[in-house]
Every structure is written in structure tokens, then in C-alpha cells.
User: Fold these one by one.
Assistant:
Number 1:
Amino acid sequence: MTNIADAQLKHHVALRGEAILTSPRWNKGTAFTIDERKAFGLTGRLPFRVNTLDEQCDRAYDQLEARPEPLRKNTFLQSLKDQNWVLYYALISRHLKELTPIIYTPTEAEAISNYSHLFRRSEGLFLTFPTQDAMEDDFLEQTKGRQIDLIVCSDAEQILGIGDQGVGISTAKSAIYTLLAGVDPAKALAVTLDVGTDNQDLLKDRLYVGWPHERVRGEEYDQFVDRFVQLVRKYHPHSLLHFEDFGVTNAKRLLDKYRDKHACFNDDVQGTGAVTLACIMSAVGVTKSKLADQRFIIYGAGSAGLGITRQLRDGIVTIDGLDKDEANKKFYLLDKNGLIKESLGAENIREGLQEFVRPDNEWDGVPANDKGEIGLLEVVKKVKPTVLIGCSTQPGAFTEDVVREMAKGAERPIILPLSNPSKLHEVTPEDATRWTDGKALLATGSPFPPCKLPSGKEYIVAECNNALIYPGLGFGAMLSKARSLTDTMIIAGTRRLASLAPALKDPGDALLPDFEDAPGVNYEVAVAVVEQAIEEGSAGVEWKKEEVREKVKEAQWKPLYGTYIYDPKGET
């Protein structure tokens, strides 16, 4: 990978005139120097003044501020990205905490739901079911001759908070890899797998830009996805394949199918689980206990809830040495049918939950409804959990009765309402703090202001944001050239994130680092992943562990302008 941390790095570029000005990879706009303007035929194409990158960022920020609505800011930034990568990433890096929610969660969801109506210019690769016979040609048209380190693909069936969008775009995820880990955007590819949609509003929309057909499922779907994955394996065997926003019936299944054959990652399944594990590791550090000492209730047993449960279970096995069956017994999962237990019947227990089903005889005498379903409050009363995690998207599900009951059985209850956006949180941090008399250790899925403790001190609420870990996990996998992103590599990155928690120095501080520190945090995560890959023998690079920190630093792409030299045989 290229080290461009030095702004004086020289690039040999083959584009001239209008071609270089319309290339987002190479365009500098008013930052082209006088010599570059002469060499690239730009003297008459640009106004006289040569600007620095800082000046360009100031101008772009002023333009952005003139757009008060988040969606208008999002479209402005997308337009900027289409024009000039360096300026786009430099601007966001200078205002990271303010602008990441504009290009990512939550504003990106609104942009995706309006994608067909906001559409101006395509970005990435679109592979569509009815044209799959040309898939290899279409794939090579965009990738031939390129080094591709990262491929983010989505079938857009389950986009956070908005569901099936047909042709949702995965470019935002790719941008976060660049912003927070340093992945070169020229070596990343966003792929839309358009297999139709079951969203009736989209199917009736005459401006819908995707394939207007009901969503393909079953064997035809699997063959389509497999055709794509085999192209990735054939032409880019050392790339990371990131699955994004796949539906609950496909997310874990596809990950399991391919993860031993290629370096694959699913943020919804693994990233959410990894950042949650790091958060809870920090919390148990505060309570001076162990993961294996905890009793976990997971409220919401979809892809995220199951992914969190598995990651926590694997952490208990790896870190505390329990066997898998014993670790499974630490977990109590609930979904729309209440507690997942044997008498629900196979038809009401979805695939993947079987190893966490509770035996009925545990619940003799516990009140249930007329269907035999046991609700959250009764589970809390019996289990006396130390950890309560919400990923149900049911606002207010952690009622005052539930939280106060939990506080009776836990000295420092660990409460994580993780549903996004904030209006879907199971409990607000303010209420959880009040109902536990300030004892709760808290983290949320969206940003919240600090809570006032009974002592008058403010408690910083950690944001359990996947972006604190998944860019580093992925970048580490890319750099290690491992053929698989192993569970132990993920655990290594998770432990490194947990070790950076402010709460370990001050128990009254946040359970995770502030998002402002995300680039440095992801660097540490990437280092830990590469070190683990080397240690376990899965790395495809001949590095020594003591070289890793410098190697990762050298590999990071930075949004800086180098010096351009015109060369007809140079890069395009």
C-alpha cells in the first residue's frame, strides 16, 4: 500500500485538462500549483489564486453551513466527494464528530430512502439480477488493473431503521473505512447487489432507479450472490469482503458460508457484537469482576441481538476459559414472543437461536401470559441480570419497573439501550440514571448528552458506535492479507478497544473512547488485528510483530495533496 502521509509525495498522473479536473481522485481544484497548472493544461481553466487545502476546507465548510437541514448537508458533501476526494475527506476529518452523522448514521438512512429522487450520478458498481450473465464483464470494467483492498457489498434488504430499499448504497460504509482507518479510496469498491425489492412504495414509484421486481429469494438468490463472491475470490483474493445491510435470513448465513474461504466481515453481525463486547469488558473492569460472572439479558433477538450474544459468548470462552455450553447458559434472549424457551416451539424460534433456548423447567411458577409467553419484567425478577442489552427498536421497553427491579439485584447494573435512532431507544440514559440512583453503567447506540448523577457530577454516556472498531478490524485484515478474519483476530481488536476506555482510569468516565478519537482508536485496533494474525500464523505477510505499528502507519491513506508530475504513462 502507498504511504502518502508526506504531502510532498510525487504522483505521476496521465490525465490533463478537463479530464484531471473531473477526476475526484486527482482533482485539486484551486490548489493546483502554478507549475502543475502549466504542466496539466489548467492555466486558463482555473482562477488565478492558488489556495491551500486549509483554505479550501474553510470555503467548503462555509458553503456547508449555509445548508441548515442535515439531508441538504448530506447531498452537498456527496457532491463534494464526486469532485475531490482529498477535500471531502480533509473537511470531514477537521469536523469529525459534527459531520460523520451527516454522511453516515442517522442522515444517510434518509438519503438512501430518497435515493431515487436525489439521484444525480452513480457511484460504485451495480450488479442486477436480470443482467447477471454480464456480471464478470461489468465487474472487470470497474476493477481491471486496480488494486482492490476493500469491497463493501449490500443487497439493501435491511437498512437500519428503514428496512428494504432495493438499491441502497454502500458507499457511506466505505467512506468510514477511509476516514477512520486510512483505507485508500482508490482501492475500495462499493457494490450494490440489486435483486429487487418487496417495498411496495418503491415498486409503485415511477422514479425508482432499481430493478422494479419483487425480491428474488432462495436458490436463485444464492446463485447470484455466489457468482459475485467467486469473482471477488478470483480477481482480488486478498481483499476484505464486507457484507452490509443484508436481511435477517441471509446476514449470518452468508457470513458463515464464505468466511472460511475469504476474508469476510458483516458489521451488523460482528461489528455490533465486537463494540458491545468492548463496552462490557470496560464495565466489568469498573466493577472488578469478569465476563464469566455476568448474567445477560438480550432484549431483541434479531441479527444484531444474536450477533452481540455470540460475540459476548465467544469473549467469555476466549478470555475467561469457559467451555461454549457453559458460556451459553449465561444468556437469556427475548423477542416478540418473550423469553426464548423450549415451549415456544420450533416454528417460533428462528434459525441461529437454538443454542440459547432456555429449558421450560427453569420457569415453573413464573407468571406468563395466556400464550405461555414470559415477558421482560418477569425474566429480570428471576434472573437478576447484571447486564441488560436492548436491540429491539421498541422505545421505552426498559420501563421504570424493569430498571428498578434490575437495580435490586446488581450493585452496578450495566444497561445498554442500543436501538437506533435515538427515538427508538429502550430507555433514555437520564431515566436509567434516575431509576438506579446513579448506579447504572451506561452506553447507547446513538449520542446522548451527559447525565446528572445524584452527587451533582455529570456522567459521560458512551456511544456504542460500531465505527469505533469495524474500520480497524477490516483494515487490519486487509494489511495482514489473512485469508480469513478469524474470531481470535476480532477478539484481539476488541480487547485493544476495551483497553482504551476512559472508565478504566476514572470509573465515572465513559465506557468507550469519544468518537472524536476514532481514527487513533481504529489504528490501535488494526495493529492488534495484524499482531494476532502474525501470532496465530494466518497472516499472508512476512512481518515481525515489532514492525506492525510502523507498517500500519505507513499504509494509511491521508487526505493530503501530493506533487503531481505529468506523465502520459502515469496513473489514471
Note: Residues 1-6 have pLDDT under 50 and may be disordered.
Number 2:
Amino acid sequence: MLRRAFSSSGTHLLSLPLCFSSSSHNTFHSKSQNFDSLASFNRMLLMNPLPSIFYFNKLLTSIAKMKHHSTVVSLSHRMDSFGILPDVYSLNILINSFCHMNRVDFAFSVLARILKLGFQPDNVTFTTLIRGLCFEDEIGDALHLFDKMIGEGFQPNVVTYATLMNGLCKVGNTSAAIRLLRSMEQGNCQANVVAYNTIIDSLCKDTQLTEALNLFSEMIAVGISPDVFTYNSLIHGLCNLCEWKHVKTLLKEMVDRKVMPDVVTFTTMVDAFCKVGKITEAHDVVNTMIQRGIEPNVFTYNALMDGYCLQCKTDEAVKVFDMMVNKGCVPNVWSYNILINVYCKMQRIDKAMYLFEEMCRKELIPDVVSYNTLIQGLCHVGRLQDAITVFHEMVSRGQIPDIVTYRIILDSLCKNRHLDEAMNLLKIIEGSNMDPDIQVYNIVIDGMCRAGEVEAARDLFSNLSSKGLHPNVWTYTIMINGLCQRGLLAKAGKLFREMNQNGCSPNDCTYNLIARGFLQNNEILGATQLLEEMRARGFSADVSTTTLLVEMLSNDRLDQSVKQNLSTFLK
């Protein structure tokens, strides 16, 4: 596939396609249908008299459980056409399906129908709608519906509360979820383990471990037994903070309470140990798993592989991959992505391509990360044309490139002096439904400066605000460097001061680049002032600046007093 493509005649850079259409997302549709259920439905419609709504509801429930929500909607319409009067149960099923299809607006029209038919919505109706709103991050509307539900005299149950807590936690409003828990406790509704787990998990993800552990103690005190999910959330939070002693204590407590650690518990620990370079400890955890009769899964092996790759121990990562396969654990796309990434970083592109092809042969569908990694690897070794070929294959296989894909290609085009092609690609991105970010413009401005198109770069820099973007420290640094390279020191200095005034503080790279620009153009006084300011801010001369200073100090034509002044920046 890829090798044949690479050996063929080159793909023109200008033939980069526009592939942002949202219709491309419709490539994958489930073709499987529960033919028995549909056949049963059709037979029921032919009966005389028609079966009661109970049997239709039973059928719709089974189809909804299979997540064939569009089929539920279609069959509901057919029931209407046959004059079969729905009840609240069947209309709740329809609301649920619309919510799963991200059509909460249609779900609310079903609520209106419930009221129009003279039925009373129940807790299931409101809870399902609240869940649908939360899923679409419409948390304000979910809270409003919750309040309206109570105002209409309905008493939310624990599922309703837990659903809303989950929605609040997902948008990062854990404090509101805790207030809801307190409100729940003050009412007639008893919190359960799911409600506590939801908040504890969110607190752990927010690194609020003290609060999470306090809530954990509270749930035990009120007689609610923690389950494996509770412990897994806490262990994950503690692992992220490298609180190994607390993890060990919690594991012991977990076992003492007859809650057995599962594959998630151990994999969490393996992943945490690997991320901080504790491979030996990670292996010990895997061995403990196996001794307890818990087989590592693909995520366990992936974590171990990733740990080895972080330490550049590629051979050991490959051994883990082979061990996974030999034990009958099927690698997933991420397993291959880990190895492809490390081979690309080692510039062993042919090996990375072989793994990519092997993944395809095993009928695994490469994701955007797979393609981006391979494209980045090819660009890094100067094989831009091959990267373009992979890009085309990515599009032809229905995988939608993301902004990272385009950044990689833009960067390579600019660095390889294909500025015209880069500008054409930028126009395509700007004309699409994908919003280019500041990094995209940083790449293009840098490419323009490298090509000597400094005035065009300045125009683009000046127009960033009209695009709803603000220059960051790298945008300023790139532009300042470009001006220095053209000897436009006054403009570079002016932009440097504007940078500070606009609330964007220069970093060590900014100082070093502008100082070198002034030194290279023999503006010694200005360079000295910049170097002094740089040192006052806690930055020091980098290797390139130091080398330049050493070269200048060895220049016999340079005034001795100037040399003495410059030498202070080498200390």
C-alpha cells in the first residue's frame, strides 16, 4: 500500500485536497439490524386485533438496548400511522432515543405530546431529558428543568440527582454537584454509592484529593459501602500525585473490606509507575495481577510499552508487544501508535511504515493519531512528498485530518521553502469549517520570515486580531527574529516593547534572539541593554548567544571596553 505509493510518481504538493466536509463523518454506519425484532414488529401489526401497547413497548425496549435508536424512532412513527396509541412508557423510550441521537429538541417535542395526550410525565421522563441536556453540555437548561420538575410537585429520585451531579462534574462544576448532594441529603432522597462515586471521581480528577478522601470517609460513616469504582478513582488520583504510600494503604483497606482490585485498579498503577520512570515497580504490579488470577488487558500492556518508550527502550517495548500477542491479547490501534511513534522519533521510518501496514492488514483502522505520527516522522526526515502521499491515503480511507495534521504539513512546506504551497493550504484551511489556531499562523509567519517575506509576515501578524486571534510569546518571538534577520532593528525593538505593553512577557528565547540580532548588526549598546534586562529577569545566554559573544571577544578590532562589558554576560 504505502510502499507502492511511495515508489510511484510523486504527488504534487498543490494537489492537497479540501476534506473538511462534515458529510465525510457518515462513512461508518451500522448495517446490522435485529431482524427478529423487526419481523416480530411486522407480525404484530398484521394481528387482528392488535396486541396491547405493552408488547410494543417490550419490543421497543429491546431495540433501544441494542442502541438502534433510529430504528426506535422509525417504528414509533409506524405505530402512529397504524393508530396505536402510545403510553408514557413508550413515549419515554422515544425521548431516550432522541437524546441518544443528540436531538434533545425532538425529545422535548415528545414531552409536549405527553402533556397534549393528557398523560403525566414521570421521573423517568424528566431524568432522561436532564441526561440528554447534560450530554450536550446544556447544564443551565438541565438545572432549569430540574427546578421546574420540583416546582411541578415531582420528587426527583436518586437517579435524577446522580444524573445531574454527573453533568455538573463533567463541565467542571464539582462544587455545584456537592451542593446538590447536600440538598439531596436534606430532602427525602438518600444518596447512594453512584452519587458519591460521581463526585469523588471528579474531585480526584481536579486533584482535590483531601476533599475526595473526606467525602469517602463521609460515605462510609453514613453506611454506604464503597465499591471498586470508588477505590479506583481514589487510587488514580493518588497515583497522579505519586502518593505511593497512600496508594498502598488504600489497597490494603480495599482488600480488608472485601472489595477486590480489578484490572482497572492494577492498570492505573502500572500506567502511573511507567509515567514517572518506575518500570520495575510497574512490572511488579503486573506480576501481582497475574498471581491473583487477573489477566492484564490491552491497556495494561500499552501502559507498559509506553513506559519503555519514554525511556527509549524500544526493544523492551517490542518484547511487551510480542508477549501481549502470545498471551492472546489483541493489540489495538493505540498499541501500534505507541511503537510507530517511537520508531518515528528514532528516524526508523521504514519500521514505522511496516507496523502501520501490519495494523491495516489486521483490519485495525488507523486513527488520526496514527496518520499524524507517520506524517510527522516522514516530514522530520525530509520525506515531504511521501508525507503528502500518506495524507492522500488518509483522506481516501475516510479519516478526517485534524488541525494537527495541517500544522505538520504546513510546517514542513515552510521549512522546505514551499511557501506558495503553504499559503495555498492556509487559504484552504481558512475557507473550511476548521478554525486555524495561533500555532497555524506562527508556522506561516515563520515560513514567510525564513523566505525573506518579512513585510508580508508583518501584514499577516497585524491582521491576526481581525481573525479573532491574539499573538502569543512565540508569534512575537518569530516576528522579532524575522525583523532582526533583515536588519530592521528599530522595528524589532519597537515590537519587543509592544509585546510587554500588550501583556505578553518575553521568554528566554525572545531575549536571546533579539540580543543576537542586535549583536550581529553591531548594535552593541542596544544588545548590552537587552542582555542586562534578560539577566535581571532571571534568564541567561543560551548556547548560540554564548558562542556569538565568545567570537566577538576574540575579535581584535572590537574596543577593549566593549569586550570587558560583554564578558560579564559569560559569567
Note: The radius of gyration is 31 Å.
